[in-house]
Amino acid sequence: MGISERFKRAFKGKIKERVNLKNYSYMHTGGYAEQLFLPATIEDLKLLHEEFNSVDIIGNGSNVLFKGNIDRIAVISDIFNSTISVVEDTITASAGISLPHVARVAYENALSGMEELIGIPGTIGGAIRMNAGAYGKTIFGLLKNITVFNMKSGEITNLNMSELKPTYRDGGFDEDNIVIEAELKLTREDRNYMLNRMINFSINRRMRQPMGGYSLGSIFKNPKQYPAGWLIETCGLKGKRIGGAFVSQKHANFIINDGTATSKDILDLIDLIRTRVAEKFNVELELEIVLL
Ligand SMILES: Cc1cc2nc3c(=O)[nH]c(=O)nc-3n(C[C@H](O)[C@H](O)[C@H](O)COP(=O)(O)OP(=O)(O)OC[C@H]3O[C@@H](n4cnc5c(N)ncnc54)[C@H](O)[C@@H]3O)c2cc1C
């Protein structure tokens, strides 16, 4: 797939050809991308918009499963990770900065609100798209402003926060909007109190979730009535394996890649889980992860 000479000359970030996507998903599976872009500036996003009109994007890839080969993708993590500033009770962070890093900066500045989110391995942009959350706290509960680049119009705007309707694991805004920066409003707090909370949340996560292997966290959203993990476990599927993919013994809503799985293994296991849960409970499990 050709890229114009004008684009190649003007693009400040990196362009990679024929990239193995497994290095860009926490599941460590996937096909190949013919072209992978690491935009360095807003101008690079504008160039992508002019050249291709629309491009799929990822952040850290901690919630993305690549189904197979794709033509092109842009990664909003490496480069858009430079700016973070604290003014009074507000942290402004560019989209590629990781949630754990923002949580640490918040802690250093005695600003509370991020403690629950410290174990989520995504970027600010990915977290906002997914309305990431843990222990009753979601990123949207902290957001004061979101600045986006719109891939269709090529314009930079601030989203109107009062019009947004985020839901469970969905920021609820137009797919064409790429988050480039966000402002988080936090609350001044005693650092020792914050540290204790962060330690407790981290311990709790370690106790409840599998460590090691490749995974995307929870595969399915929790239906209203029962946690997805309980439904899957009750179907006797803990440990169920297809190829190199298996259902975690520790938390049945986690699928682990033992290092040899393909995306097809993961997708087949997802299908099997859905079928069994639907047969037994008449519940349709909905994916939390994003398929690209
Ligand atoms: C071990 C583990 C534990 C996890 N625990 C939790 C948890 O407790 N709670 C939770 O909510 N999630 C959890 N997750 C899932 C994941 O970390 C979050 O969904 C995270 O917010 C995804 O961020 P990311 O940058 O990795 O996004 P990606 O996985 O790269 O992308 C996810 C989606 O966001 C979009 N996106 C990425 N960047 C941007 C941007 N700048 N602008 C607009 N859209 C963008 C992508 O197009 C895609 O649709 C966990 C994952 C793992 C591996």
Give structural attributes.
Uridine Diphospho-n-acetylenolpyruvylglucosamine Reductase, domain 1, binds flavin-adenine dinucleotide, single chain, 4-stranded mixed sheet, alpha+beta, 292 residues, Uridine Diphospho-n-acetylenolpyruvylglucosamine Reductase, domain 2, 5-stranded antiparallel sheet
Summarize the main sheet.
5 strands, antiparallel
Strand content: 15-25%
The radius of gyration over CA amounts to 20 Å
- By secondary-structure content and strand pairing, the structural class works out as alpha+beta
Concise synopsis of the structure shown:
This protein has 292 residues and is an alpha+beta fold. It contains 7 helices and 18 strands. The strands form 6 sheets. Strands 6-7-13-11-12 form a 5-stranded antiparallel β-sheet, with helices on both faces. Strands 1-2-5-3 form a 4-stranded mixed β-sheet, with no helix packed on it. A 3-stranded antiparallel β-sheet has the order 15-16-17.
